[in-house]
Amino acid sequence: MLRQDPRSTRLDSRAARTGRVRAATPRPDQTPLVCLPCPFLDHALEAARKAGAEHIIDARAQDPVEAIRELTKGGAPVSIDALGIAETCVNSVRSLRKRGRHVQIGHTTRAEAGYVPLPIDEILLNELELYGAFGIQGQRYGTMLAMCEAGTLDPGALVSRTVGLDGVTGVLEDMGRYDMTGIVAIDFKLDA
């Protein structure tokens, strides 16, 4: 799906949880990772730094589209939005260079109710591709597990905290407020 030149920059417009996934994913080509974290969460900026983003753009301090276009000398070839709010989705699409690809992996919020107004003329004139992705494809699990076994992929780097089953309600509440980063693991032994 991402079919990109190994020298190209990847733009991740998302919450820090997915940023950790990207940073934990091996990049043998060492393409730069640019994070445009959630524009209203300070902890997402810090999590992006810890996750290994080479460049972090704070959308509150500068126009994120202009910043990406300047940093990438014309726009990113690939962008990903995992937050699902209109602002990050549109900024992600508008940050692409001609013939770029946007991957949407974040569900919309109640405010968007499944609909995000996109810059159709830019998509058409720049021949952009838009993809939706929900989870990893079943046939890719073998490759992923082999990477874990070889030590090139560290799923533990994605876990920000571990809770027992009695802590799940609090985690869901945090998710509803975008008040968390990383992945929360549930350890059933903690309740015993």
From TrEMBL:
Residue ranges, compositional bias (Basic and acidic residues): 1-15
Q: Ranges of Low complexity compositional bias?
A: 16-27
Cite the Pfam families for this sequence.
Answer: ADH_zinc_N (PF00107)
Record Gene3D superfamilies: Medium-chain alcohol dehydrogenases, catalytic domain, NAD(P)-binding Rossmann-like Domain
List the source organism.
Sphingomonas oleivorans
Report the domain of life of the source organism.
Bacteria
Name the segments for region: Disordered: 1-27
What protein name applies here?
Alcohol dehydrogenase-like C-terminal domain-containing protein
Please provide, alphabetically and separated by semicolons, the GO molecular function terms listed in this UniProt record: oxidoreductase activity
* Domain Alcohol dehydrogenase-like C-terminal intervals: 42-148
Q: Keywords, A to Z?
A: Oxidoreductase
